[in-house]
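This part of the workshop introduces the protein records we will be handling. A record pairs a protein's sequence with a compact description of its fold. Comparing a sequence with its tokens is the quickest way to learn the format. To make this concrete, we reproduce a full record directly below:
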Amino acid sequence: MTLSSATRMRRACPVVAVALITLCLALPAPTAAQKATKPLRIVSLSPAITESLYLLGLGENVIGVTTYCNKPSQVRAKEKVGTVIQPNLERILKLRPDLVLTMTLTDPRSIQKMRELGLNVVTFTIADTFSDLCDVFLQIGRATGRSEDAARLVNTARARVDAIRLRTARLPKPGVLVQIGSKPFFVATKDVFMNDFIEFAGAANVFRDVASGSVSREEAVLRDPDVILIVTMGLSGENERLAWKRFPTVKAVRNERIYVVDSDDVCSPTPVSFARSLSDIAALLHPREAKEFR
């Protein structure tokens, strides 16, 4: 006696159901990126993080930034949520972000409070070297589901930096002083990534040997740098350039090799902007070979 089609279907259903359940259990769990059914809403509490997000194609996802975030120009229209160190938690909560990205410069108490309030906060360590910058950029890529894009951009930046270092290795190394403060007088030492700018550009940091960047201008005069780079971090570059004119015996003053550098370009770079600024600095330090770096 043959079974009817309906009877066969009823008997087969439990078997099919068990098979489907087994298959689903065997499948890997969805990743965070796969779970996301809507674009991430991101608050950035660092200029470098903000610029990184735009480089990764996430500009539209940025819903809040600090008052110091001004690159790229589109970010100026974004909601301001306080400073790098002291974010405004009330404003951040109102934005209902999926992700808050911070640097270790942000007040730890604010970071802890945001976590207690249920916000998803990821904190990155401030970079001291170009290598650190690349690592942080890759971490930002992983946190936002853009690992491949981050790796591609880092590889391109590293290749450009390596090419500049190769070109400058055969050139004379001028002594360079990087001034990043005036009251008190403050210079770049070996412990900040500004030192990488100097050395990768084929020069020598005249204050590489000191433990602290807080030195006297008299000591800077005695170091007699060939080139002075003035970083406009909270000070007037032109006023500082004029202040150096009081010391005509310094080679950089005598040879008119005092240059003003925008702090936005060198104080909170991404790997991409580091490579671009390194090219500009190398051209300043080696004017005869400037075309090779641009």
Q: What stands out?
A: The chain has two domains: 37-126, 172-293. The mean pLDDT is 86.
